[in-house]
Amino acid sequence: MQTINITAHTNDASQIEVIKAVMKAFKIKFEIVKEKPYDTKFVNMVLDAETEIKQGKGILVTSKGFDDLWK
Predict the structure, then answer these.
(1) Separation of alpha carbons 23 and 19, rounded Å
(2) Whether the model pTM is above 0.70
(3) pLDDT tens per residue, range 47-57
């Protein structure tokens, strides 16, 4: 048995059902995997940082201040 990965961009659930029907008609074993675009830990880290900035916990760095970091 050979395994291939196919990514299908569908407009609605009915298109997914059509794809399933075609695969079944050709007697092809398949599985549907819904992938998350980003790691959950990373997303939470970004959201937490955004919240901290809104609370005034961030540090404003100007371009001069950024240049000073390398000196």
Answers:
(1) 6
(2) no
(3) 999 999 999 99
